[in-house]
């Protein structure tokens, strides 16, 4: 991708009003084409498995893994999609997961942003101690406490309830940390003016900080939503009744119990992936803009 | 921000003056402290305690000292899983880093609209669940109808039982792991590259440096911190992978995909005495948790504690 700055006088007579020299034009064209090809390569690599899943959903059950391999179905039939949507357990698990994900997201935003505000803006006696305690929890891997958390929710008689899915992961130090970084940068003068005007601390939090929190809330909210929607290990440990089946749990069970229905499995997976892809596409600009190296600078 | 010791001459209600928001603050952090306390801190303490006991759901527990830990450390199966974990890291991390580097070089060299398309596409796999990824890749690896063997067949090469062959299974799980993990690595790499001052490249251009020279002498040295960060977080994340092998192979064939966390998880489910599993999990935590804590401390040394 070298670009030699060879200076030759511009030639006239070309139709395109560009200032490129004749020597540079083919080179730039070549570099551009190479970049486009390389870009397409990455895009295909990233999206192929998903495209393939969606397309496999339109194949009959034997066609999905038929030899010789075929990318497109012979006949596009929507049977798999309609059949899986007709399965009440599938629909209910989509619904229950969506409900849980929304509750989880709301709880996560509330709990973590309140703590973030307190740690960013309030002075209290045990602030440093509690901050260290909260931050330390960030480094405890899930596997270490998987079993003892399970013992805990068993003791609390939370097994097989929506609460066991929603409550345990909602408070997360990493989210507190992220929102707090944002709150630290809100100008103090705004807050002081409101306090002088008689607005209490709650008022400051509710009327000044919350309305300004769109950017961190999108990131934390979408992350929470995705985490909940995609979680598999915790649901298989804590949920046994089909009424509360989570969508990933449903898919994994379908995969092992009805292994011949590959078309339906692919259709179900595509439908289960659709909501998270949609959520991401709606908020992608904020998400991508916010993925910077936290604290690397 | 009031810090430092309270001078002794201050009046009795100095606390109220120094911390006017005490009540408010405790109300606001109570939910998170209670929730973390119940679901993270207490379980962590309990895990530490249980690791010294022969504990099961069904019997009285018995204090056994460090026996669980010595059992874990001398267990050839646990060591094998650690080695497997390192092998898995060696299969995923270099590809991820080099791929992300190339991707980021490309994404920072094209026009904005194309760069946006690239970034969104590369990030989409990251939001797909482990279960769905496993479903897709299991079918890609299917012996008779999968696309991979179809490609081999068209080259006149024999098909492989990707997930059934102990020699291939780990690599077959590394591919979806890279596919899932690539997005974040790429975006962090792009952010790092965009931070390098354009003037560095301009002066290199003036001196006639080519792309390769600019990469070696400017990009990589300037990305040192970002690369270090990605290597360590990538290592920690990769060695802890267990959902993909859990769903795709359950650790088989012949334990060839039983990564450390999956080993522990399978132990949890199979062995009524959990002291061993918890001790193993704690050992991993001590190593990996402190590595990430250390990195976090170094990177955030000023922001961590006010």
Annotation keywords:
heterodimer; A: 297 residues; 13 helices; disordered N terminus; B: mainly alpha; two-stranded antiparallel ribbon; 2 strands
For the CA atoms, what is the radius of gyration of chain A?
A: 26 Å
Kindly report the spatial arrangement of strands forming the biggest sheet of chain B.
1-2
Helix content of chain B: 55-70%
List the helices and strands of chain A in order: HHHHHHHHHHHHH
Describe what you observe in this structure.
The complex is a heterodimer of chains A (about 300) and B (about 300). Chain A is mostly helical and about 300 residues long. In chain A, about 70% of the residues lie in helices and about 0% in strands. Chain A has 13 helices and no strands. Chain A has helices spanning about 25-55, 80-85, 90-120, 125-135, 140-155, 160-170, 175-185, 190-195, 200-210, 215-230, 235-240, 245-255, 260-290. Chain A is globular and about 75 Å long. Chain A starts with about 25 loop residues before the first helix and ends in a 7-residue tail after the last helix. Chain B has helices at about 15-20, 20-50, 65-75, 75-105, 110-125, 130-140, 145-155, 170-195, 200-205, 210-220, 225-240, 245-250, 260-270, 275-300, and strands spanning about 55, 60-65. In chain B, strands 1-2 form a two-stranded antiparallel ribbon. The longest helix of chain B has about 30 residues, at about 75-105. Chain B is mostly helical and about 300 residues long. Helix content of chain B is about 70%, strand content about 0%. Chain B has 14 helices and two strands. Mean pLDDT of chain B is about 90; it is low at about 1-10 and about 300-305.
